[in-house]
Amino acid sequence: MTPPPARRSRRTDGDSAAPRLALPRRGSVRRSQMITTYGVGSLIAVDNESFVVSGIDDAHRSWALDEAPIIHEHRLARVLGVKHFRLPPASEDTSKDGVRVRRFPLWHSCPSCQCLQHIRDFNPPTNKNVCTDCDDEPLVPSRFVVACEDGHLDDFPYWKWLHRKNREDGATGRCGGQMSMRFSGRSASLRSVIISCTCGVPEVSMEGSFRRSALTDLGVRCEGRRPWLKGAPAEFCRQAPRTLQRGSSSVWQPVLKSALSIPPWSDGLAAKLSEHWETLRSFSSRMEIEIYLKGAFRGDDSVTADAVMELLAAEQEEDPDRESNADAGAVSPYQVLRRQEYERLCSGNALRDKGREEQFICEPPVSNPAVLEPFGVARPMLVKRLREVRALKAFTRIADAESSSESHEAALSLTPTDWLPAMEVSGEGVFVRLDESWLDEWAESPAVAARVEQLRTNHDRMLQERATDPAEAPVSPATPRLVLLHTLAHVLINEWSLDAGYPAAALRERLYTDDTMAGFLIYTATSDSAGSLGGVVAQGEPDRLAEALHSALRRATWCSADPLCIEAGTSGIGGANRAACHACAMLPETSCEYNNILLDRALLVGTPEDPSVGFFRQVLTA
């Protein structure tokens, strides 16, 4: 990762024909971290320096596209409005340039002379971060930054914070004095961070700077700055600026969207046709397609007109503007993707007659699934091969990425691009589906509905509190079906982590829950190998799965935090859980789709006072 050159150096990044300048390397991160942790717009600390990761604008050539391989996932690309995705540049060993970064924050302090000012006023050498008045003492980037819920980012206004009571000369930062920052050492609180100025104003501490209205009370408004985008003009912004710690997770949260590669897009043919797809779409007859393929794929028999016709038909079927999809009402395009995956997981895709390039193999177990009937579990499916693409759509600041609307998502580029950063993982898993008639009968119980309604109310309140406009807050997805399946997936992952040798962090859940779906996929997937070697798939055999379910449900009947856990009216963040804690139902957050909320193990096993709320009560009493 490399910062921009000094101001006086001649930079030709804006010229698409000009080569990228060779700049000093500042560090390296894993490819997956460029999507989940250090993506576009995030702050990254390298040694004693701090940078913001540049955007993906093609005109500014911030990303080395020749080092960012193209990956295809047609269904997800169509929903996100791009043509394809790109892997982030490779690691330090193989990358020549990588991703560029820009220095941020720009305000620094010197630990020796305690001077606090913009970095240019220290007059450091090119690409250095030192105080020239203190024998090249390394400078310390500001611990505090300012952000708003629309994603804007700026330096903390130290001048206005210090001169709050002397606005005549200090509001514009022209008092003529020299500011300094020191630490009293009395405590680790903000009260020990002291700001002073040689102009004589009373010194102040940073205490109170994190209050929601601390900056607006001083007349500070968001300037709409986007330092991760080169040349981005300041936007008009109505959001209130907030003070944040530079290393806080609230400074940057990714908005990730993912999809599984399923037939007919999973056999590698779509990748071969990517450059020709727009042309193939324009043809209206099979004969035109055959003539074009003979010229474009001379000598390649794997690309047939029948296969192309099948892909074109599938694309029309998946079109969100189709009448069948329009009738779905408020169903989001991402939920449509889940429904397509659910249908394919239920129907399967056998290994026979499939080539080595097939990325989705899903088959039923050979043994009799009758042993699972007491659990209300339909025939499981063994996903022996899968590929998932996870794309970075945008990012948010301050607001939770799941509770904020798209209007608060910060863009990755100044101008629209035809690609997005993404990573692909491959692995295997087990798909479990519950009998919907059993679920519907169980969900009609007033006791079950009351427990879930309390979760839903608390979750709705939390989403409204986090949203800038409560009217725009998303609606909680909590339903008896979702909470049950979500909790069951958690206890099953915990069981496999104890019995099958997989750490819980190596397994992930993928939920399929609405009025038309009732299942979940538990899978393991990695970006640097072809997944595991059948260890997860083996857990899906009916005999093993029945043993694991029985053991997991037995464990769920008792928690080391009981009776407090099972009797809790609410628990978790915002009261969005009931009987669930880290000792019984919670997972590492990388394994959970809902950040460990909307969980209630009482819906699995019941409570001592009312066993009837448990979906699996009959199995446990048998």
Outline the structure in words.
The chain has 622 residues and is of the alpha+beta class. The protein is built from 18 helices and 22 strands. It has helices at 33-36, 74-80, 158-162, 167-170, 269-272, 277-282, 286-296, 305-318, 323-326, 333-347, 436-443, 446-466, 480-499, 535-538, 542-556, 564-567, 602-605, 617-621; strands spanning 43-46, 49-53, 70-71, 84-86, 101-103, 107-109, 116-118, 130-131, 137-138, 140-141, 144-147, 153-155, 179-183, 193-197, 204-205, 242-245, 253-260, 361-363, 381-396, 419-433, 508-514, 517-526. Strands 3, 4, 17, 18, 19, 20, 21 and 22 form an 8-stranded mixed beta sheet that branches. β21 and β22 (517-526) form a beta hairpin. The termini are far apart. Mean pLDDT is 86; it is low at 3-18.
In short:
The protein has 622 residues and is of the alpha+beta class. The chain has helices at 33-36, 74-80, 158-162, 167-170, 269-272, 277-282, 286-296, 305-318, 323-326, 333-347, 436-443, 446-466, 480-499, 535-538, 542-556, 564-567, 602-605, 617-621; strands at 43-46, 49-53, 70-71, 84-86, 101-103, 107-109, 116-118, 130-131, 137-138, 140-141, 144-147, 153-155, 179-183, 193-197, 204-205, 242-245, 253-260, 361-363, 381-396, 419-433, 508-514, 517-526.
